[in-house]
Specification:
The protein is built from six helices and 19 strands. By secondary structure, the chain is an alpha+beta fold. The chain folds into two domains: 128 residues, no CATH class; 144 residues, no CATH class.
Length: 340
């Protein structure tokens, strides 16, 4: 039987053990989040990419290598493009954000130099399935002029040199670059639902229908219009869904239209009340569901069509299953033909 004195002693020992354990936890968290003197170094505050101002002006390509994707931005006479998307233009503001970010990025405190801990702060070697992003800048002669591995943990950026295990917290900002899609300029068509006056659809069987609505009417008030005015509408919702499909168009990917290998399976022509037409063709390709489109606008002020065609001409855009279905409904799902 344990005496009262021994019970008190045991209770004190347990309390001391809990306190000691808590201190170790606090110490561990402090080491992760604070900057002890050993983390200070001579390059603190200096640019991560020394001399990048010159490299920036002479850069010909910027390559991003990730564990599951790699892509390259290339400078052309017409501006910067996505090399892996057939030369599709990238968003200029995103490239400017990257260039400024790389130029102003500076060293903060040292962090781990243990390669087995690199993935904890987003700096794992992407060539070995790590979670870092290898960024390489190429000069006019094709040589690498600047390179770093960058990573994020929460809102903090970490960096290291590709050939060095030493990691650093970095001061500055960089744009997201973990997917090539974030660079592509897919802001092409901006039409609101209330602007759509009519749609003409031809389905995979060659059947056609023309749906329209009156100005100021509800966006679910599309009806069969001449020469199909005697046909019966099956569903107002189905009719409005396909009539307004172009207002929801959101591309997932892009490739040259010349790479389309299949025949068209749907033709969808939208028209606005003020005379802008979007003529869209749909294709079911081996690598996904794709659409091409062009804008048509009459008159001297046809600047909207010109702006759309400047971006879209010569390109095919991959869309979601839902968008594709909205562009390619069977006419028989929308109307019942009038008896002859």
């Amino acid at each position: 039987m344990i005496s009262p004195r021994n019970r008190k002693l045991a209770r004190k020992l347990i309390i001391l053990a809990v306190i000691a354990g808590g201190l170790w936890v606090i110490l561990g968290l402090t080491n992760l989040t604070s900057a002890p003197k050993s983390s200070l170094h001579a390059d603190m505050g200096k640019p991560v990419l020394a001399g990048f101002s010159q490299a920036r002006s002479e850069a010909s390509r910027i390559r991003f290598t990730l564990a599951d994707e790699s892509y390259t931005l290339a400078r052309t006479a017409d501006g910067w493009v996505m090399e892996d998307a057939g030369g599709y233009p990238i968003r200029p503001e995103r490239r400017a954000e990257l260039a400024t970010g790389l130029e102003t990025l500076s060293y903060g405190e040292k962090r781990t130099n243990d390669p087995y801990k690199h993935n904890r702060i987003g700096l794992g070697d992407p060539t070995e399935d790590g979670n870092g992003a290898l960024v390489e800048v190429f000069g006019p002669d094709g040589d690498i002029t600047s390179a770093l591995i960058a990573g994020r943990k929460n809102d903090t950026i970490y960096v290291r040199r590709p050939d060095d295990n030493q990691t650093y917290r970095a001061n500055g900002t960089l744009p997201p670059f973990y997917t090539s899609r974030s660079w592509l300029d897919f802001d092409i068509i901006n039409i609101g639902p209330t602007a759509i006056r009519s749609v003409r659809i031809t389905d995979n069987q060659g059947e056609s229908v023309y749906l329209s609505r009156q100005a100021g009417s509800d966006t679910r008030s599309f009806r069969p219009a001449p020469p199909y005015q005697d046909d019966t509408l099956i569903s107002r919702l189905a009719a409005s869904t396909t009539a307004l499909a172009v207002t929801r168009l959101s591309a997932l990917d892009v490739k040259p239209a010349a790479d389309i290998t299949t025949r068209r399976v749907g033709h969808h022509i939208s028209e606005t009340f003020d005379g802008l037409e979007i003529d869209l063709s749909a294709y079911r390709e081996p690598d996904g569901l794709w659409v091409t489109f062009r804008a048509i606008e009459a008159g001297e002020g046809a600047r909207r069509a010109e702006a759309i065609n400047t971006k879209a001409e010569g390109w095919a855009y991959r869309v979601t299953d839902y968008d594709f279905q909205d562009f390619t409904p069977a006419v028989s799902s929308l109307i019942e033909r009038a008896s002859e």
